[in-house]
From TrEMBL:
Transmembrane segments: none annotated. Pfam families: G6PD_C, G6PD_N. It comes from Mycolicibacterium aichiense. One of its GO terms (cellular component) is cytosol. Keywords: Carbohydrate metabolism, Glucose metabolism, NADP, Oxidoreductase. This is Glucose-6-phosphate 1-dehydrogenase.
Length: 452
């Protein structure tokens, strides 16, 4: 059951993901849309096909016919109890429904109340989209609305970064290769850099973006979840085996210090429709975090994220300490690095030092694996996550205690933000971002695909 099936997210992501699940033979249930729009089932099917084709996905007629046969529609106002009576009738005789709320968070409580009033929540799973609040107190208030009728095991909070195949690869590379574990600590690692760069601006999304900003949009959720993957230590299976350890890791991260926080805004942002005059919303953010546990104490984790930067790239870069100076080797200026590229063209790269041919000098060499070159095509993030939700696997979803811990980490930055610094589109943000890493390796240029 998809509430908001006529909306933007369904058009861009959901229909394509469900179609791909159908093509792989993994879709086994009816799909019922719920929206205020008075659409027939045929209208919904036509919209679904157009949406899938608009994403660039090649549509197989036989696959789509199977998919279309699953689609039906319930029209009604989310505030009207009669709507939930129609929902109950549409799924009569079915068990374990998954209610996917592709609607603003302000409507979550209303819809869950309506579902509970119709007796539909007892064995249900409810999938909700971010944002999970806009600060710690609002996140708790939102959870209170959901938990009035649902237990925690029933709530599936989506962060699509956790559904990205290269994010899942981090765990396998860390724990399936015995050569890595002895190096994965404060004795061998000098710093960790996480970059999420976008080479486009806010464009026509000013009304959405201006109340949010980069810290809330991508750091509190996506990029802190990447730290959870790179630094936590799962020790048992099952969904909570992974989530327990991510939360344990978040609890050991100090609250972020506004003295080590840089905010930027690209020139021209204020001219965008929907942006408030004299807005202080950041389109670029850079910060330093510390993890107070035995493995990571003293290793800074640097995050930078922004719009209108030179390239589009998301990566985690683990920078190892320099080797000692030895009399039989020239001085080595560069350091070993292990890079996990999340986007684009995901892969992993180990940067080593080797002899330069013909001279007594070293140079960096890359031992890189691009996943698409060696492995089968990966499922899309929403494809993976929606499939998991339908099968009751919550391991790649976020628990409430994880939400609250990540808000706790960034809360000081929300309460005492420094002023924004203006930067030029196409640059790497304001100069303060470089000062943030003083004393540690400078920000690295992202590892990009060869064709870029």
């Amino acid at each position: 059951m998809i509430f908001g099936i006529t909306g933007d997210l369904a058009r861009k992501m959901t229909f394509r993901s469900l179609y791909r699940l159908e093509r792989r033979g993994l879709l086994t249930c009816p799909i019922v849309g719920v929206a205020l729009d008075d659409w027939s089932a045929d209208t919904l099917r036509e919209h679904a096909r157009a949406a899938i084709e608009a994403t660039g996905e090649a549509v197989d007629d036989q696959v789509f016919a199977r998919f279309a046969a699953r689609l039906s529609m319930v029209s009604g106002d989310f505030a009207d109890a009669a709507t939930y009576g129609k929902v109950a009738e549409a799924i009569k005789g079915r068990s374990n429904p998954v209610f996917y709320l592709e609607i603003p968070p302000s409507l979550f409580g209303r819809v869950v109340d309506g579902l509970a009033g119709a007796g539909l929540t007892d064995n249900a799973r409810v999938v909700v989209e971010k944002p999970f609040g806009h600060d710690l107190s609002s996140a708790k208030a939102l959870n209170d609305q959901l938990s009035a009728h649902l237990q925690e095991w029933q709530i599936y909070r989506i962060d699509h970064f956790l559904g990205k195949e290269p994010a899942m690869d981090i765990r396998y590379i860390r724990f399936s290769n015995s050569i890595i574990e002895p190096l994965w600590n404060r004795d061998r690692i000098e710093a960790v850099q996480i970059t999420m760069a976008e080479n486009f601006g806010v464009e026509d999304r000013g009304h959405f973006y201006d109340p949010v900003g980069a810290l809330r949009d991508v750091v509190q959720n996506h990029l802190l979840q990447l730290i959870g993957l790179i630094a936590s230590e799962p020790s048992s299976g099952g969904p909570d085996g992974f989530r327990d350890k991510r939360v344990e890791l978040f609890k050991s991260i100090r609250p972020a210090d506004p003295e080590h926080y840089v905010r930027g805004q690209y020139a021209g942002y204020l001219e965008i429709d929907g942006v408030a005059p004299n807005s202080q919303t950041e389109t670029f953010t850079a910060l330093k975090l510390h993890i107070d546990n035995w493995r990571w104490s003293g290793v800074p984790f640097f995050i930078r994220a922004g719009k209108a930067l030179p390239v589009r790239a998301t990566e985690i870069r683990v920078i190892f300490k320099r080797p000692p100076e030895l009399p039989f080797l020239p001085k080595i200026d560069e350091q070993n690095e292990l890079i996990f590229r999340i986007d684009p063209n995901p892969g992993v790269d180990l940067v080593l030092q080797a002899k330069e041919s013909g001279v007594d000098a070293s140079r960096a060499v890359n031992l890189c694996l691009v996943f698409a070159d060696e492995m089968a095509a990966a499922p899309e993030p929403y494809e993976r996550l929606l499939g998991d939700a339908m099968h009751g696997d919550s391991s790649q979803f976020i628990r409430e205690d994880g939400v609250e811990e990540t808000w706790r980490i960034v809360e000081p930055l929300l309460e005492s933000p420094p002023p924004v610094q203006i930067y030029q589109p196409g640059s790497w943000g304001p100069p303060g971002a470089d000062a943030l890493v003083a004393g540690y390796p400078a920000w690295r240029q992202p590892w990009l695909p060869a064709h870029q």
